[in-house]
Design brief:
99 residues, two-stranded antiparallel ribbon, 4 helices, 4 strands, flat
């Protein structure tokens, strides 16, 4: 994280498994060391959804909905596949193809 902050990127991405088992103490530890100086986009992994982890994740980051944004020539797509049994949303294939 320190290296990312020092590089001064436009934003950072964390694509899940922020904690190991979703226990509250792991979230407390994570929040104690997370000090981002850039916008951070997150999506949940299966570890966030263990135990009470899903509720804690939603409390900290809001609903884990699929979303995307474009910046320059790139489109960044975030999909929460954990709740869907690790599958893509229906009819996502055509919409994710390169235009």
């Amino acid at each position: 994280m320190k290296e990312v902050n020092n590089a001064s990127p436009v934003f950072a991405i964390d694509n899940g498994d922020l904690v190991y088992s979703g226990r509250i103490n792991e979230w407390v530890d994570l929040m104690g060391v997370w000090h981002w100086k850039v916008p951070l986009f997150v999506s949940p992994g299966n570890h966030e959804y263990q135990g009470e982890g899903k509720n804690i994740y939603h409390y900290l980051f809001g609903p884990s909905e699929d979303f995307a944004f474009s910046l320059g020539n790139f489109t960044y797509v975030f999909l929460d596949d954990v709740d869907r049994g690790y599958t893509l949303p229906p009819r996502s294939g055509p919409s994710l193809r390169r235009s």
